[in-house]
Amino acid sequence: MMNVLKDWIFTTDHKKIGLLYLIGSIAAFALAGIMALLMRTELSAMGPTITNNPNDYNVWLYFHGAAMILGFQIPALTGFLANYLIPLQIGARDVAFPRVNALSVWLFYMGIILALMTFVVPNPPDVMWTGYPPYSVLTPGNTALYTFTVLLLGFASILGGVNFLTTITFMRAPGIGWNQLNVFTWCTYGAFILQLIFVPVLGTAVTMIMLDKYVGTHFFDPSAGGDVLIYQNLFWFYSHPAVYVIFLPFIGIVFDIVATFARNRIFNYKAAIYGGIGGIVLLAGEVWIHHLYVTGMPDWLRVGQMVTTLMISVPVGLLFISLIGTLFKGSISFKTPMLYGLSVIFLMLIGGLTGIPLAIVSLDLHVSDTYFIIGHFHYVMAVAGTFSIFGGVYYLYPKFTGRMFNETWGKIGFWLSFIGVNTIFFPMMVVGVTTGMPRRYWDYQQFPEAESFHVVMTVGAAIIALGFIVILINWIHGMFKGAPAGDNPWGSRSLEWTTTSPPLAHGNWEAVPTIKEGWGPYEYGTNKA
Amino acid sequence: MHKFGMTGLSLTSSLIGFMAILMPATGYAKEIADNVKGFDHLWYEVMVDITIIGVIFAAILLYFMIKYRRRGDDDEGSQKPMSTVSAIGWAVIPVFMFLADDLYMAAKGWELYNDYRNVPENSMEIKLEAAMWTWDYTYPNGVKTYNELRVPAGTPIALRMTSRDTLHSHYIPDFRIKEDSMPGRVTYIWFYPQEPGEHVVTCAEYCGLLHSRMAGKIIAMPEAEFTAWYKAEAEKLEQNLASN
C-alpha cells in the first residue's frame, strides 16, 4: 500500500500524472457542483430560502465559478486529456520534461487546497471568479486566497505549456508530420500557445489586486491616480483567450471521438487545423473588449471589437463544417462516448449562436450581466466543455483502466445529464432576455415573474446531479468489475490504441512505433461498408 | 461554374456588408430614437438569423446521423481524401458566407449603437452617484432623490453616472439599457420614457453583500404632475437651506 502511494506521489509517468489531474479535477467538479445545487436551492423560491445571509450565496458562487474553470475544466482538458493522450498520439515515450510535469500536477493540487481553504478561513473570498476591483480591494473577504489560487494554477499552466509545446514540436515519432497529427493534439498545441502568452497577464492582474489590498499600492484606486478599469482589461485580456484554452481541447477531443465512432477521415482537415484552430489563436487576443461593453469603454473600441468578436464565427464555423462533414459517408456507432461527442455539436450550436447577439454591442447593452449571458456561457463553455471531458473519459476509459464501463448505465447517465442541462440553461436565457434579471443575485424580489423559471431550473439541476451520480458509480464500478476491454475496443486507427490497455508504465510501447508511409490517425476506409 | 457563382455571391454580399457599415456614419435622423423598439427589432432579426443557421446545421447533422449509422460491426466510413480545389472551396466559400453575415450584423448593431450613444439635444440631464447599496440622483435644480427617479413622460432623460465606492451598473430592463458606474470615471446613458409608468432599476454589476437588493424605480409622470412635484421639491430644498 505504501509503495503504491509512493509510486503515485513521486511518479513522472505522464499517464499517472494525467490520472492525478483527472481525480483532482473531478473532485473539484463535484464540489463546485454542490455549490451550484446550493445556489439553485436558494433561488428556487423568492426571498431567503436556505440562507438569510447573501454572503453565503456570494461565497458559493465564487467557489463554483473559480473551481469549475480553474479547478475542473482547464486541468481536466490541459491536464488530464493532454497528459494522457498527447505522448500516446504522437508516439512518444513520455513528455519532454517529466519532472516539470510532476511539479505542475502538484502545483495544481496545492491550488485546489488553497481554493478549499475558502471553507475554513473566517472571511472567505467573495470576489467572484473575476475578482473585479474596487470590490475585491474593499471587501473584508480574503482576496489573497483568490490571488494565490490563481497564481499557483497559472504557474502550473505555464509549465504545462512549455512542456507540451516542446513535446509536440520535438518528440513526434519518426514519420509523423504536422499534417498527420490528431486534431486533439493540434488543438492542445493552440491552447498552450494561448496559455503561454496570456497567463502572465492574469498573474500580473491578480498580483496588483493583492498589492492594492494588502500592501497599500493604488493601481486601481482613482483617488490616488489609479484606474478601476485597468484590471478588467488585463483580466479579460487573459480570460477571453482562456475560453479558447477550454474550447480548443474540448473541440479537439470531440473531433477524435467523432472520427473514431464514425470511422471516417476528418472532413477538410487542413481547413480545420490552419483555418479553424489557427484562426482562433490569432483572433483570441483581439476580442476582450466585449466583456467590457457596458463599462464605458470608448465607442470606437466597442464597435471595433464587435467586428472582431463576430469574426470569431469564421474559424468556429470552419471547425463545425469539418466536424459535421466528418460524419458524411461515415459508419456511425452510437456508443456512450459518441453520444457525448455528438451532443457537444448540438450544445455548441445553441451556445455559439447565442453568442452572436452578445457580440453585437447595442444588444449587449440590455442582455449583458443578465441570466441570458449565464445561459449562453454555460452552453458554450460549461456544458459543452464538460460533456467533452466526460465523453473523453468514456472514450479513454478502456485504455486507462483496461476494462469496459457499463454501456446501458453510460447511456442513462448521458441522457439524464443532457435533459438536465437543457432544463436549466435554456430557461436561463429566456428569463434573462424577457425579465432582465441580472446574474449574481441571491434574491430577486424586483423580478417576481422569474420565479417559475427558477423552479424549473432547480429541477434541472437536480436531474444533472442524479446523472452525475450514475456516471460516477458507473466509472468506479467498471474499474473493478468491467469486462476486459482489449487494446482497441473502438476500432480506431489512432496511435494511442496500438499499445496495450492500460499501456506499459514506462515508455508506452515495447519499442517506438514505426510509422508507415501514408499513415494517418484518420485513415479509415479499408473495410468497405 | 457553380462554385464560382457562390464565390461571387459571397464577395458581393460581404461588400454590401462593408457599405452598410459606412452608412450610419453619414447623415443622422433628427427625431428622437426609440431604442426599445430599435432593440426589439434587431433582437428579432438576429434571432431569426441564428435560428436559421442553427436549424440548417442541426438538420444536416441529424440527417447524417440517421443516414450513415453503422450497419455491420466491421464497417468503416468511405469518405475519400479531398482534392486541393474542393478543400480550398470548402474553406473559402464558408469564410465569405460567415463574414458576410457577421459584417451585416455588425453594421446593424452599429446603427442601433449610434442611437444609444447619441443623447438627444432636448434631454434632461440628471446626475447619478451610485454607492453600496443606493442610487443617488441629483436633478439640474439641485433636488436629490434616492432609489427613486421621477421623470416627465415625453422627455428623453440622460444620466451622468459615477460611483462613491465600487462598481455598480444602472440597469433599466424596460428601456434595454445599462452601463457601469465607477469611481473616478463618468459614464452616461439615456432613455426615453414616452408614457407615464413605473420601471424597475436594478444593479447589474456585482457589488457585494446587498447587490441583489440594490433596486430602485423610475417613475415617469405626466408632464404637468412632474413639474408640480419638481417645483415643490425645489422649494422644500430652498427652505431647508434657508433654515440651516
Set down the secondary structure blueprint.
The complex is a heterodimer of chains A (529) and B (244).
Chain A: H1 2-9, H2 14-43, H3 54-89, H4 98-116, H5 135-138, H6 143-170, H7 183-215, H8 229-262, H9 269-283, H10 299-311, H11 313-325, H12 336-353, H13 355-359, H14 361-367, H15 371-401, H16 407-435, H17 451-481
Helix pairs in contact in A: 2-3, 2-4, 2-17, 3-4, 3-6, 3-7, 3-8, 3-15, 4-6, 6-7, 7-8, 7-9, 8-12, 8-15, 9-11, 12-15, 12-16, 15-16, 16-17
Chain B: H1 2-22, H2 35-67, H3 84-117, E1 124-131, E2 134-138, E3 144-146, E4 148-152, E5 157-163, E6 168-172, E7 177-181, E8 187-191, E9 197-203, E10 215-221, H4 223-243
Parallel strand pairs in B: 1-5, 4-10
Antiparallel strand pairs in B: 1-2, 2-3, 5-8, 6-7, 6-9, 9-10
Task: Please give a structural write-up.
The complex is a heterodimer of chains A (529) and B (244). Chain A is mostly helical and 529 residues long. Chain A has helices at 2-9, 14-43, 54-89, 98-116, 135-138, 143-170, 183-215, 229-262, 269-283, 299-311, 313-325, 336-353, 355-359, 361-367, 371-401, 407-435, 451-481. In chain A, helix 3 runs antiparallel to helix 4. The longest helix of chain B is centred in the middle third of the chain and has 34 residues, at 84-117. Chain B is elongated and about 95 Å long. In chain B, helix 1 packs parallel to helix 3 (84-117) and helix 2 runs antiparallel to helix 3 (84-117). Helices cover 45% and strands 23% of the residues of chain B. Chain B folds into two domains: 2-69 and 82-117, no CATH class; 124-243, Immunoglobulin-like (Sandwich), CATH 2.60.40.420. The mean pLDDT of chain B is 90. In chain B, the strands form two sheets. In chain B, strands 3-2-1-5-8 form a five-stranded mixed beta sheet, with no helix packed on it. A five-stranded mixed beta sheet of chain B has the order 4-10-9-6-7, with helices on one face. Chain B is of the alpha+beta class and 244 residues long. Classes of the chains: A mainly alpha (529), B alpha+beta (244). At the A-B interface, helix 3, helix 9, helix 10, helix 11 and helix 12 of A face helix 2, helix 3, strand 7 and strand 9 of B.
